[in-house]
Amino acid sequence: MASIDTEVRAAALLTLRRLPRSVDRDRILVKLARESDPDTRIAALEMLDGSHGREVAETFLDALLDPDPIVQRQGASWLVMQQQEAVAFLDTQRVTRALLAARTENGRFHIIQLIEFHVESGGVYAFGPIIDVALEAEHPALRQRSLELAFTAAQANPVTLPDVATISSYLEQPLDQETRQALRQIRDKIQERLRK
User: Fold this and answer.
1) Contact between 13 and 43 (Cβ < 8 Å)
2) What is the per-residue pLDDT across 3-17, written as a single tens digit (0 to 9) for each?
3) First vs last Cα of the chain: how many Å apart?
4) 52-195, CATH topology level
5) What average pLDDT is seen over the chain?
6) Which of 2, 58, 99, 141 is the most buried (most CB within 10 A)?
7) What is the rounded distance in angstroms from the CA atom of residue 150 to the CA atom of residue 99?
8) What is the Cα Rg of the chain in Å?
9) 72 compared with 183, residue with greater pLDDT
């Protein structure tokens, strides 16, 4: 695959397509999904579709941040179609970094969906980045979904007194009434849990 000759690269990809699915084949495809050539990345992700495991899931998560929109869509499609168990083991910090680095609202929306899976499976996420996405969102559905996720996390995640301060700092910003109300509900839920 290191050849600069496109015919050689195409023949190598065709050979990989013919190989039965295996851990070794998937490892090669994971590496190819990070190649500089977008066509190679697209082909590698197509062949990885249907595979599972940490490296595969991380590869599709990374695809959300790819400069090529086709690769981004492949990453989003794979991640959204997975069962919770297939993505539950992803590192929460890596997912948070992907959320903050996502170039489009569509990319952020798909990562918010992934975080929802994680929170439902017991994953713990910081409130700040999720609320940042809500406050920066231009699309109302992304804003609402992010705020709902932050509220769900406030119900399920361990909470601390600094979490109240974080939410309070957001409330000091100029906000529309709906967003302000949602943030107050999150703050109130955290305070309620701290009193117990």
Assistant:
1) yes
2) 566 677 777 788 888
3) 59
4) Leucine-rich Repeat Variant (1.25.10)
5) 87
6) 99
7) 14
8) 20
9) 183
How is residue 134 written in tokens?
């809500």
Domain residue spans of the chain: 1-48, 52-195
| Number of other CB atoms surrounding residue 133 within 10 Å | 25
53: left (phi over 0), alpha (psi -120 to 50) or beta: left
Q: Which amino acid is at 37?
A: D
pTM given for the model = 0.76
- In percent, the amount of the chain with pLDDT more than 70 equals 94
DSSP string, 64-94: TT-SSHHHHHHHHHHHHHS-HHHHTTS-HHH
Q: How many CB atoms lie within 10 A of CB 42?
A: 18
Residue corresponding to tokens 């994971």: 30
